[in-house]
Amino acid sequence: MKLLITGMAGFIAHAVAKRLSGHGHEIVGIDNLNDYYDVALKQARLDDLAGCGDVRFIELELADRDAMAGLFAEEGFDRVIHLAAQAGVRYSLENPHAYADVNLVGHLNVLEGCRHHRVGHLVYASSSSVYGMNAKVPFSTADAVDHPVSLYAATKKANELMAHTYSHLYGVPTTGLRFFTVYGPWGRPDMAPFKFTKALLEGRPIAVFNHGDMSRDFTYIDDIVEGVVRILEVVPEPGTSTASPDASTAPYALYNIGNGSPVALMDFIRAIETATGCPAQCDFQPMQPGDVPRTWADTEALFQATGYRPQVGVEEGVQRFVAWYREFYAI
Asked: For the chain, how are helix, strand and coil distributed in percent, rounded to 5?
């Protein structure tokens, strides 16, 4: 198959591309290499893929309507894995237009490309952030998610609604994946696992929000990738929608993709202390705007669809991440 992977220089897309390489696919990746975080890390991910003869990279702006239309017309993709997005909850408070450009306009350009060029399956990234302040746990795709608490979350929910519309109107098979706190080697510097590890190794304090009373469904990158690769083969058909709680008949699916086992933030910090051999200096702070106290994925639907459950626990995952961090930054 010929695959398009958007956000190729990003954390998850890089890992997905590497996993799919060598399996008989032709893979085209796009990214705009913006400076939301260290561009050198993004370039290093691309360099890591340079030896994969079946992977080709094109620098391209997702929100560029004409360029995206040209890409789909020239390449003729069989399937699309759309992982590009403007990420970050807190950043959306300061730079809202970036989220409209990439997460809304960019997503629409991908949908249009899939519509006009008969792409066989669009798998796209959503987020656990759509659950907002939902009190019921674990979070299920059957839950109402009508009260987002950040613009980032609102754009990801909008992505799901836009995808459903294209599935309904044009028969484009789409599957949304709500990712839960992904971490591991090649991870994002703006996320807590990376920030905490860097601070501990440098002997600096870490900001711990909500005074440490938080939990996250931390999910190791390899488990995320396995879920994405397997779901790529599970193409939704009309009348089999998983778009609960409604009764949609569109070829549309929506899944949580997480570890399914939340970890208290302070326990996660202790795992980093163990892996680094450095004590954490915690600067306890109140909850930040747009943040939520806990996440927890109900992953049964994903298991029923793919037969896969996450394999990597937090202690092992953190050890692997810290080992990569030390090697990458020569510490």
From this structure: 45, 15, 40
Q: What is the DSSP string of 217-243?
A: --EEHHHHHHHHHHHHT----TT----
| CA pair distance 246, 241, nearest whole angstrom | 9
CA-CA distance, 75 to 28, in Å (whole number)? 9
Chain segment 116-152, per-residue pLDDT in tens:
999 999 999 999 999 998 989 899 999 999 999 999 9
Residue 245 has pLDDT above 90, yes or no: no
Looking at residue 73, what is its pLDDT? 98
Choice among 37, 99, 124, 152 that is catalytic? 152
CA gap 54, 328 in Å, rounded: 25
Active site residue 255: no
Amino acid at 290: G
* Residue 278, SS3 per DSSP: coil
- Give CA–CA dist 193/226, Å, rounded: 21
The span from the CA of 169 to the CA of 22, in Å, is 35
